[in-house]
Phosphomannomutase
Amino acid sequence: MAADLSQIVKAYDVRGVVPDQWDEALAELFGAAFVRVTDAEAIVIGHDMRPSSPGLAAAFARGATRLGADVTLIGLCSTDQLYFASGQLGLPGAMFTASHNPAQYNGIKMCRAGAAPVGQDTGLADIRALVERWTEQGAPEAAATAGTVTERDTLDDYAAHLRSLVDLTAIRPLKVVVDAGNGMGGHTVPTVLAGLPLDVVPMYFELDGTFPNHEANPLDPKNIVDLQERVRAEGADLGLAFDGDADRCFVVDENGGPVSPSAITALVAARELAKHGGSGTVIHNLITSWSVPEVVREHGGTPVRTRVGHSFIKEEMAKSGAIFGGEHSAHYYFKDFWNADTGMLAALHVLAALGGQDGPLSALVSSYDRYAASGEINSTVDDQAARLAAVKAVFGDREGVTLDELDGLTVTAADWWFNVRASNTEPLLRLNVEARDEAAMAKVRDEALALIRG
């Protein structure tokens, strides 16, 4: 009986509970399938701090070497450090992490050489099909010559590359609180920030995949409460929070106030446009603030709107030659980083921008944060399609309102917009609302929620 991998092979990665949904035996088959689908002669593998990660990574390596591929193991790393290794070494890569999921989960994020994404339409479906076949028919025949395994430390090179992309030489001294959430930020931050005029106050830097302090998901407000309190207590200039695999970075200002990832996208976009001569394409997904395309145009750039999800962003960046891309989930993508996402590089841009002037962060970001937003509101629904249809029916007939269905349903008026999209993995509808003022936002939000929740 072939294994059913439908529950663990997602749109962009493999993710599930270990060992209930997958284990080292399956990881070995994934390693062989990855080599077969990418036709790789050599690959690079990294892993996070979860208890199951080293064993799963080693099993994946066994599957890869069995089919003749040479393996470079870079050990403990952040996901963007794995992308760096894939880009720098020109090798397909696999990262063992479940990002911000609870401790019992693990997963694999895979990429082709140069950090090009592997998703459902770019190899992941083929990998799944091979693994399912091999669980029924037996493992593939071994290559005549097995591949080799070597170990390599890429942390210093990763840090040096990031530092080469942002000029931090002239910044003023800053006090920054960093909450690593017991994730991989505790491994990367000390090396990346070493030698800068920063007083770094570390929180939860101990690598612990059981997440004893809070979930390593800074987009959930309850997980940044400790950081907010510490920033205020320390009189710090800002706070940074990383997720479990440290590819996303969330920012709080000197008052402990959360800074919208859309404002960070706009700020970094302005800096990247200046760096690239005042022109270039910037990608933003359709739930980022109106302020993002406005700032991009004001700084000479061309904004391009995409669906939510890193495979769509990376695809559009490659197609358009974009210099930067941002999502409201605090993923930030850089042309100078193989079009891959790196929260650490975005953090360096924030430090450079803040340290290059005298005002507080709240004042600096205010020009990039122009509208009232609801944040993402999730509603559990029985029938996603029916609830979306109800929203469309009510708002579709209104004068001066436009609809588009690039990703879910986006409804736009002169003074507000909202987007409702279905979750790919749960019976949820996700609502984001933005308006020119708080009262208008609340009115539209409440009306839309009433329709969504029936």
